[in-house]
Amino acid sequence: MTVRISRRKFLSSTAATGFGVIAMPYLSRAGDRPVISHGVQSGDVGADGGVVWARADRPSQMMVEVSTTESFANARALPPIAALPESDFTAKMLLENLPAGQEIFYRVRFRDLSHIDIASEAVVGRFRTAPADRRDVSFVWGGDVAGQGWGINPDDGGMFTFATMRKHRPDFLLHSGDTVYADGPIKSEVKLPDGKVWKNVTIEEKAKVAETLDEFRAAHKYNFMDEHVRAFNAEVPIFVQWDDHEVTNNWSLSKQLPASYKERDISLLAARAGRAFHEMYPIRENLNEPGRLYRTLNYGPHLDVFMLDERSYRGPNGANLQDSYGPESHFLGPDQLAWLKRGLLNSRATWKVIASDMPLSIIVYDDATNKKGSEAFAQGDGPPRGRELEIADILRFIKTSGVVNTVWLTADVHYAAAHYYNPDKAQFQEFDPFWEFVAGPLHAGTFGPNELDNTFGPEVKFIKAPGPDKQNLPPSAGMQFFGHVKIDGATGQMIVTLRDRADVALWSTTLDPKRT
Asked: From the CA atom positions of the chain, what is the Rg in Å?
């Protein structure tokens, strides 16, 4: 449900609303009151507002107050919306027409549907709307959470990377996918190579691969149990995309499911996973294509973010199709590719960040043991073929159309890297040089490094990975990575820094914007 609030109405004196019940005394026992079960979130924030999310523990109404002051002295109450079993008691509210470049505070309560005079305790969150002027912009990015069985371990500080990122007070988190590992059970204990024991917080639904809608929902709710994640979510908006583990490893609609799945229909699994994903994150809904994840997020004069969906439209990439392009070689698909071209061409932002849930030139084998079948863009050395033809197309378009200042940000491979794409070193040369930065995992096993192919000529400028003899390192090893971007409001310079969970700056570079 969309709730619209005009700027005039927002700034006017408080009018009488049904939300006044919040000020009434509570006469019920605490156990009778609804509970906000997993904190609050905001997301898809722009210059005029964003989406607010919360979940109750029972059928109820979500009530939101919004203010430009932390004291809520000028708070406005918005019409309540329902949180019902059909959405697992989650509710999302779109706040619009808020002032640009402003710290916004929101306060959420849930009111019992059967007894409207009974409401939950309040939970407060905040976000900053995108600027209308050329001020500094700061954000973090990364992916891969609760992967390889490494869940919430209080002895190791929980999902500690989120606490580190929060200290930077970023404008938003660009989450590059693998938000959960629906295909990765969480055991209570994992024995480490040094003899120590990793102890996970566990829930019943995470004891097996997710197949039912409730199991997919539980995979997301598991992450929200972590105190660092909840504190981060209350202060930092999320721009979220998905990759494979929201459904199952390396999934596409042609995926053959392993024997651990009783449900054999990958389309049904993906539909359930997609519904849970949309329920659990504050994503702006697309009326033209409900459930669509690729979208443009405008964050002021210096930044447009193009969020790609590299799962929903891909074909099987069969071996006999490597040298051709058709439906079975799609990765983005023609509609998404056309949308990206239009958006890049029409963007007036200084920087065009392309958020890709997979790197462009890192080979990710579907069968890692036998090194068969790359499930990524990269198809191996040589001229573009199969899925790489889409990348060749978009890179050629960027060059010939005069689009400048594109940067690719990604995760997926569980290590940190900086790649400079140089046409002089590439098999395909019809593009202008650009950067791709890789960050993550935020809280998962650390792997890598992977093979690069030379189709688009990536030069490795930095890499931080365990090495071939040390794979699947736990978070306690310290090799959890995130990226931090700061855009200088005055000069437009972009400073990109790759950091670890201890907040050590591992590598940094400054990019000067080109002028058209």
From this structure: 23
Classify 394 in phi/psi space as left (phi over 0), alpha (psi -120 to 50) or beta.
alpha
Cα end-to-end distance, the chain, whole Å: 41
Residue-wise burial string across 88-114, b where 16 or more C-beta atoms lie within 10 A, e elsewhere: bbbbbbbbbebbbeeebbbbbbbbbbe
Q: Which of 421, 493, 501 is nearest to 464 (CA)?
A: 501
Asked if the model's pLDDT at residue 215 lies above 70, the reply is yes
| Non-local CB neighbours of 410 within 8 Å, separated by 6+ positions | 143, 176, 355, 356, 357, 358, 359, 360, 436, 437, 438, 439
CA-nearest of 334, 258, 325 to 294 is 334
> How far is residue 356's CA from residue 96's CA, in Å, rounded to a whole number?
27
Which region, left, alpha or beta, applies to residue 456 given φ > 0 means left and ψ of -120 to 50 means alpha?
alpha
How confident is the model over 480-513, as pLDDT tens digits? 999 999 999 999 999 999 999 999 999 999 999 9
CB 401 within 8 Å of CB 409: no
Average pLDDT, the chain: 92
Cis peptide before 170 (omega within 30 of 0): no
What confidence tier does 158 reach under pLDDT thresholds 50, 70, 90? very high
pLDDT attached to residue 405: 98
Q: 132: how many CB neighbours lie within 10 A of its CB?
A: 14
Distances (CA, A) of 36 to 41, 54, 435: 12, 7, 42
pLDDT digits (tens, 9 = 90+) for 401-417: 999 999 999 999 999 99
Length of the chain: 516
Residues 176-197 have pLDDT tens digits of 999 999 999 999 999 998 999 9
Q: Is 295 exposed, middle or buried (0-12, 13-18, 19+ CB in 10 A)?
A: buried
d(CA 342, CA 135): 26
Nearest to 464 by CA among 478, 451, 449, 485: 449
Q: Tell me the pLDDT tens digit for each residue of 12-29.
A: 433 333 343 333 344 445
Please report the DSSP string for 277-295 in residue order. HHHHS-PPP-SSSTT---E
Alpha helices (runs of H) in 203-286, residue ranges in sequence order: 213-224, 227-235, 266-280
